[in-house]
Amino acid sequence: MRNNWWKIWSAVLLVYTFVAGLLGPVPSLPLLQETIRNLYFHVCMWFAMMILFTVSVVYSIRYLRTLDLKYDIYARHFAVTAIVMGLLGYTTGAIWAAYTWADPNKPLINSFSTIARDPKLIGAAIALLVYFAYLILRDAVTDIDKRARISAVYNIFAYAILFPAIWILPRILPSLHPGNDGNPALDVKNDISASMRLVFYPAIIGWTLLGVWIATLKIRIQLLADKKLMS
Amino acid sequence: MKILSSRLIIGALLLTLSMAAFGQTARSSMDNVMRSNGQIYVVIAVMLTILIGLLLYLVRLDKKISKMEKR
Question: Which of A220, A223, A226 to mutate to test the interface with B (most CBs of B within 10 A)?
Fold first, then answer.
């Protein structure tokens, strides 16, 4: 294993997240109850996604500055891992919403139209679709240099859509989703209880490092495959 | 390295077997940890097994790629 200290940290923090996340004290809130523990899993997926997309766009910019194809591979695989995290965040959010937002007295399908119209969900869907288009666009271009350049520029545009779609748009419209004013998750005074922050922040770091680990593995495989192609 | 990792896996398997043995003794005394608190510890054991399994898979993958890079 190469440069493994942060990989060990990822494993340690995730084990801590799973144990302390299930056993640690949480405030008892109406509707949420024990599901508040999903904060350590569902919300962390989105945090990891945002951080990995940021890493991806940084490598895209570095590619455009140096025209080194290595950075193009980095950007692509960080974006793919971020998309996986985003899909997991979306799926876990759907499960969570089904048991907290939906009216328990009616069949789930009756609440579906209300939930599906939530601006935060639509915003997240737009952001993910924009990134799906990034992958499709990449693979549609066969010329290596052209592909790298077009996708690097597109990645910057996609990143510019990501934050308006998941942060600004949902704040303009009324949303069921929590975290619409102030600095959600990062407001230490009145957002999350102190005992939950002790698990939440390590959880973000652990999940993000796991994403980085997976991305670096994919990058190394790609670099090996390219090397084989050249020789 | 390969011997070490296979030893680790065998060790983990043996540990799981001993877990089953714990379950056997628990049947006679219902007050053990795994059965307290609405059996949440069983959920934690299952989740940790999956997490550690996935992490071990990543470690093995990482080692394999490192070996390919050296070649």
Answer: A220
Domain count of the fold of chain A: 1
CA closest to A214 among chain B residues: B58
Helices A69-100 and A194-230, axial angle in degrees (round to 10)? 140
Partner residue opposite A22 with nearest CB, options B44, B52, B68: B44
* Cβ–Cβ gap B47/A22 under 8 Å: yes
Residue A61 belongs to what domain range? Answer: 5-230
> Shortest Cα distance from A207 to chain B (angstroms)?
12
Contact between A191 and A182 under an 8 Å Cβ cutoff? The reply is yes
| Domain layout of chain B by residue ranges | 2-70
Residue A108: partners with Cβ closer than 8 Å, 6 or more residues away: A98, A102
Report CB contact under 8 Å: A22, B43: yes
pLDDT digits (tens, 9 = 90+) for A172-185: 887 778 776 666 76
CA distance B34 to chain A (A): 13
C-alpha neighbours within 13 Å on the C-beta side of residue A179: 15
pLDDT digits (tens, 9 = 90+) for A75-117: 999 999 999 999 999 999 888 888 888 777 877 777 777 777 8
Who contacts A174 (Cβ-Cβ below 8 Å, separation ≥6)? Answer: A119
